[in-house]
Amino acid sequence: MTLIKSISGIRGTIGGKTGDNLTPVDAVKFASAYGTWLKEHAGKEKITVVIGRDARISGPMIHNLVMNTLVGLGINVVDLGLSTTPTVEVAVPLEKADGGIILTASHNPKQWNALKLLNEKGEFLSGADGAKILEIAEAEAFDFSDVDSLGEVTTNDAYMDIHIDEVLNLPLVDADLVKKAGFKVVVDGVNSSGGIIIPKLLEQMGVEVVELYCEPNGHFPHNPEPLKEHLTDICDLVVKEKAHFGIVVDPDVDRLAFISEDGEMFGEEYTLVACADYVLSKTPGNTVSNMSSSRALRDITQKHGGSYEASAVGEVNVVTLMKKNNAIIGGEGNGGIIYPELHYGRDSLVGVALFLTYLAENNIKSVANLRASYPQYYMSKNKIELTPQIDVDAILKGMEAKYANEEVSTVDGVKIDLAEEWVHLRKSNTEPIIRIYTEAHTQQQADALALRVINEIKEIAGI
């Protein structure tokens, strides 16, 4: 099944049968549900939604379907066209809109697309709001407007530039200082909208840019998830060009990874660590990341005198806890930087600008040396497949009991914090799988911990 309905939106593969894939009918159905909910939620006569898309091949088709569905509901649309997830998030409050939709399947391959849904703050919907939209979609309780009450479409293709301006105007971003440092950077835009907006930002900060896969044609030249095994081309090009470092973003530009000058991964987990190190050195405070993110953020936060908290996995959960704890910066270990000074959403532009300013201010010429200066942690990510008959919840309860003398959290699955390492167990909502994330000071220790936990799970499950 390749149509995934969740509280954060709808995601699926293009083509196939209605209800099994993201077909035109499904796109219209869920756009109708969102628009219907928004009309009830906003409580006013005329409402506005901001829409943008990444460069996927299916983007224009889904874009037109969704946009005109909203028009049919009597909703006005501000159409940003080719855009990024954080750009749409920034645009919603600036336009005083009532919501937003980003058409992107993020790091998924080109056959996927999705509707990501935002509220009037430009933030992802709460679980309760998302659930309500799914109910409306299931009931197909739509009431479309008559011919005299149709919505109108306004095109605004300036928001990538506006987004860049908003980033450059942040107090902790210093483009003049970066320009003086004379950086040379390679950018892999995975042939999506990051190939436009990241080079534009860098050029305005006086950085020499070497472009790789920056043509926004939607033909992803490699798996678009910014993991080491997918990034051999940019790793080689950074060394060949003698660049200071490389930048990789996913198709909708909310995940950010750096390549060190030696062609090695800086590490997605450490994107947030480095940005937080800089921000906390200027504005001490608290941080938040999710439970599957590196302990290195906790260490850096404590070094600067702040406190760190871990949320359940999911951007909306990170944002909720950030607001509760007045976090200065936060995000996710997948390269997602959330900097509330601009907005509560993962934003690669913010990450790039803060990182460059940090390097320039501290005269750091070796990104590899910077990475080596941080607490060293290594992760192992595994999963164990169980038969449908096995009670996954009972297994997690058993693991919780087994480690009752350790620091255990059940906010999201079971997270066990040991003195020098941790393990996070999460069950899949769609299949009998337990995902196992471990972290330790060496890769061997992380792998060994994962193997031990897998064997303990098998023992509890009797397999």
UniProtKB/TrEMBL annotation:
Matches recorded under Pfam families: PGM_PMM_I (PF02878), PGM_PMM_II (PF02879), PGM_PMM_III (PF02880), PGM_PMM_IV (PF00408)
Enzyme Commission number(s): 5.4.2.10
Domain Alpha-D-phosphohexomutase alpha/beta/alpha residues, every copy: 8-142, 166-263, 270-376
Top EC class, one word: isomerase
SUPFAM superfamilies: Phosphoglucomutase, C-terminal domain, Phosphoglucomutase, first 3 domains
Keywords carried by this UniProt record: Isomerase, Magnesium, Metal-binding, Phosphoprotein
Molecular function (Gene Ontology), one example: phosphoglucosamine mutase activity
Segments forming domain Alpha-D-phosphohexomutase C-terminal: 399-454
Similarity field: Belongs to the phosphohexose mutase family.
Protein name: Phosphoglucosamine mutase
Gene source species: Flavobacterium litorale
Gene this protein is translated from: glmM
